[in-house]
TrEMBL record:
Residues 6-369 form the Aminotransferase class V domain. One of its GO terms (molecular function) is iron-sulfur cluster binding. InterPro entries: Aminotrans_V_dom (IPR000192), Cysteine_dSase (IPR016454), PyrdxlP-dep_Trfase (IPR015424), PyrdxlP-dep_Trfase_major (IPR015421), PyrdxlP-dep_Trfase_small (IPR015422). The keyword rRNA processing does not apply. This is Cysteine desulfurase. Belongs to the class-V pyridoxal-phosphate-dependent aminotransferase family. NifS/IscS subfamily. It catalyses: (sulfur carrier)-H + L-cysteine = (sulfur carrier)-SH + L-alanine. Coiled coil: none annotated. PANTHER family: CYSTEINE DESULFURASE, CYSTEINE DESULFURYLASE FAMILY MEMBER. It holds the Pfam family Aminotran_5. Its cofactor is pyridoxal 5'-phosphate. Catalyzes the removal of elemental sulfur atoms from cysteine to produce alanine. Seems to participate in the biosynthesis of the nitrogenase metalloclusters by providing the inorganic sulfur required for the Fe-S core formation. SUPFAM superfamilies: PLP-dependent transferases (SSF53383).
Length: 388
């Protein structure tokens, strides 16, 4: 990245950690196919298994319950399946319930038909509506199979920490399964699969300083697994066929080890910068609306609306001044659509919202510069607002 750029879009993707880069470079030197039994194969296998242990440790799971995939999106598509296996016996899932603020990776419903997917609303403060979830589960028609619920631990746009434990209790009281999307929570809050009560978790390497194109599905137990999505060779114990991307997995493992350590210190430093940013922006624009400010948020995220400034316009203005941030979530097409998260919270999504997300390498100088730029943009908006 150019030296004069300020990268404040860590929720879209985090810069590659030096440790992850080194692990990947070493892994690229390995020739063997990890499924081969010779020494070269065993060397590649050892790298994968070491990384698997790190990924498992990040969420308090055991390594054999980690299925490595090419993205969290793939992991979501693997686990969001109407057909599971309990040991050798098939187990049917009748309906999937996803929260209205899920990332599209989950919100699209994986392998469920659109008619088999229900939506869990969120409260105006951006939290999954547990009473609504309870009502949906109570009304679930079990004739076609069990209910499955998918909720995220932390929302990628607002940074709001979701009541996942409580959701898991409600789901289990009705005999259902729960998937927790831990992509934005990993490395930001403690994430323990047993403590959460999640049956399954998904993770993505590139949100924690690993490479793009590596993810994982982590199961709480070994017996209950979705039917495979990618079939072929017996890799990943038959749950995900295809020769493993050894280098990407090595980078994922290194990033997972990093994410696990020093969480509190990192959060204290990042949270202080985020608070400085929001105080600076409020000072420049007292009418600034920070979404989720009244509930628990991860330390690194600020999602805000500046009345009179369209989010797309704001994003371009920041970009021209050297600051990378998002207008809502990064969208694959590069287009900025209305935020489904703001809409779900009952907010006017027309103006939209800007997301600034920080990371461990963010500096106080960068934050002060971002506030300066924000101040200039906010002043211009008042002029154009008055003219409009
Ligand atoms: N879930 C959440 C909450 C995300 O923020 C993202 C990435 O933006 C994903 C899932 C998808 O992850 P991946 O890019 O590995 O497919």
């Amino acid at each position: 990245m150019a030296k004069d750029r300020i990268y404040l879009d860590w929720n879209a993707t985090a810069p590659l950690l030096e440790g992850a880069r080194q692990a990947m470079i070493s892994a690229l030197a390995l020739t063997g196919n990890p499924s081969s039994v010779h020494a070269e194969g065993r060397a590649a296998r050892a790298v994968i298994e070491a990384a698997r242990r790190e990924v498992a440790a990040l969420v308090g799971a055991t390594a054999p319950n980690v299925v490595l995939t090419a993205s969290a999106t793939e992991a979501a598509n693997l686990v969001l399946s109407p057909v599971f296996r309990m040991g050798k016996a098939p187990l049917a899932i009748g309906r999937l319930y996803v929260s209205a603020i899920e990332h599209p990776a989950v919100r699209e419903g994986g392998r469920f038909a659109p008619g088999q997917v229900g939506e869990i609303p969120v409260t105006p403060s951006g939290l999954i509506d547990l009473a609504a979830l309870e009502a949906l589960l109570a009304a679930h028609d079990g004739t076609a199979g069990l209910p499955m619920v998918a909720v995220m631990a932390v929302n990628n746009e607002t940074g709001i920490v979701q009541p996942v434990r409580e959701a898991a209790r409600l789901v289990h009281a009705r005999g259902g399964l729960i998937l927790v999307d831990g992509v934005q929570a990993a490395g930001r809050i403690a994430l323990d699969i047993d403590d959460l009560g999640a049956d399954f978790l998904i993770l993505s390497a590139h949100k924690i300083g690993g490479p793009k194109g590596a993810g994982a599905l982590i199961a709480r137990g070994e017996t209950l697994m979705p039917s495979p999505l990618v079939r072929g060779g017996g890799q990943e114990k038959g749950h995900r066929a295809g020769t493993e991307n050894v280098a990407a997995i090595a980078g994922f493992g290194a990033a997972a080890a990093w994410a696990r350590d020093g969480l509190d210190e990192r959060n204290a430093a990042i949270g202080a910068l985020r608070d400085r940013l929001e105080a600076g922006m409020r000072n420049a624009a007292p009418d600034l609306v920070v979404h989720g400010a009244g509930v628990a948020r991860v330390a690194n995220t600020s999602f805000f609306t500046l009345p009179g400034l369209k989010a797309e316009t704001g994003q371009i203005a920041f970009d021209l001044e050297g600051v990378a941030l998002s207008a809502g979530a990064a969208c694959s097409s590069g287009k900025v659509g209305a935020s489904h998260v703001l809409t779900a919270m009952g907010q006017d999504a027309k103006t939209g919202a800007l997301r600034i997300s920080l990371g461990a390498a963010t500096t106080v100088e960068e934050i002060d510069r971002a506030v300066e730029i924000f101040t200039r943009i906010a002043a211009r908006r008042k002029i154009s607002g008055a003219a409009a």
